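ok so for the tutorial part 2 we go from a plain amino acid sequence to predicted structure tokens. step 1 is just haveing the sequence, like this:
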Amino acid sequence: MSNKLFVGNLSFNTTENDLQDAFAAHGTVTEANLMMDRATGRPRGFGFVTMSSSEEANKAVEALNGKSLDGRPLTVNIARPREERPSGGGGGRREYGGGSGGGGGARNRY
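step 2 — the prediction. this is what the tokens look like for a chain of 110 residues:
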């Protein structure tokens, strides 16, 4: 069992110290991170908290999932490993595939 927790539905006013304080009541917090938008530098509304043991992590999930922090009900659960994503960005690249159908009149197939 993991001791890293996903914390969602955070207020944009919530700080890493607020997360640390909320979870410290349920065990030893070894790390608290808010995820920030790279482009704007603003919080994205979720973060991760790492507890010192899986038992403390489970206690924190039971105690804080659905509880209010800064006026919003938290979503707290055991974090899943990050899924591999294809490299690159933007919409998928298309190889030449023949356009969009249609055509320019009848074809002679004889």
